[in-house]
Amino acid sequence: MRPEPFEYAILRVTPRVERGELVNVGVVVFCRTRSYLGVKLELGARQLDALRALAPDLDVSAIQAHLESIRRMAAGDDGAGPVAKLAAPERFRWLSSPSSTMIQPSDVHGGLTEDPGAELEDLFDRLVASS
Questions:
Q1: Which end of the chain is less crowded, N or C, counting CB atoms within 10 A of the terminal residue's CB?
Q2: pLDDT tens for residues 3-22?
């Protein structure tokens, strides 16, 4: 299989936007030529410990709800609102657009891949699970 271009953004939680401290909680990957849009998210013990150290009064249930909303939008879930109804390229652009909210994407990065699903797993392992 020939390598194809793909794009990705890291999804991060910043409990206090004004301080700019970030904890990686996910990755979103888009590969137009393979018609692939995938997201992998984790708000596990490691991320929660880091977030609570930054903001002891953090509303964890609100973050979990927002992350679930992101998961549903990326999947194109009909019940996830108008963004979920957009085509995959527009959903990726929406999910990776700069934001001033508690959940923020990184800049969009790119590369070449033969398997965007495997790329998502690798990026997640390197940038979220092990960070």
A1: N
A2: 999 999 999 999 888 888 99
